[in-house]
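Worked example (supplementary).
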Amino acid sequence: MDRQRMESKSDRARRFLETIPLCREMGMRIDELDAGAAVVSLPYDERLIGDPETGVLHGGAVSTLLDTCAGAAVISHPQVPDIAATLDFRIEYMRAASPGQSISARAECYNVTRNIAFVRATASDESGTGPVAAATGIFTLLARRTNSR
Amino acid sequence: MSRRPEVLESEFARRRDEALDMLSSRIPFVRFLGMRFELKGDEITSVLPFREILLGNPDPPALHGGATAAFMEVTALIELSWVFACDRGDAIPAERESTRLPKTIGFTADYLRPGDPKRSYARANVVRSGRRFATVRVEAWQDQRSRLFAQATGHFLMPQ
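After joint prediction of all chains, the assembly is encoded as:
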């Protein structure tokens, strides 16, 4: 696959991700996107707190970030058609994210078959003390249909 | 003069509902998702009314996998906190300010079909509850209880 086509694929993926309502509402930003690899960040937001006593973000917010980042890695992959839907997503929470810090997720789509894509992802805060969470995901690949159910 | 048992019973039910409200309303992320909780006997059903911000795909519209996972994780946490408080012998669980939430260690979600732009429901079931760890299963559906659109298993660290 030539370089130009790969870039346009990433650009398309980026445009698609920017239209996702939940990601916009949470203020997620795509920092890097390139042929099966993605970096997406989530700024600290008090609305996403899970523990009011410590101000730590809810695990669900971190998993939404990881799911988005993993999905971004999948749809930017050169062998993947238009749409990918999560089939299986496993997340491990290593420690609480530091309150007040943004979280950055990095995902790699490391294998693609005709129907399935496999992804690994990790999320880190700004403290530089190792990941806060890790995830593995399996996505089903779908061609865009007009009446997809 | 003593009050009628019906009045006492409804007062008790109201206080339980309020306690559940208090437990969940402390969590800002629950408000962000727009989740509500309904108590029938000792069964908690979480309700996630559809809103556009929950979409992960605008066309065709489908709930974001992250929103679905978060909905199920919160359901598991609330159920676990409630059961934990009941087992401790509180008549009105979680009425104490000090109730601390368990921490999620691992959470695995299976997506069985797309989440339609509709109201979603979820129920959690504590499979095992030990002194340190607990395992919870969650099922989520929309129109039909028997047609799940997602399910999950989570492992949690209990508050010490």
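Two points are worth noting when inspecting this output. Residues 81 and 99 of chain B are 8 Å apart (CA to CA). The radius of gyration of chain B is 17 Å.
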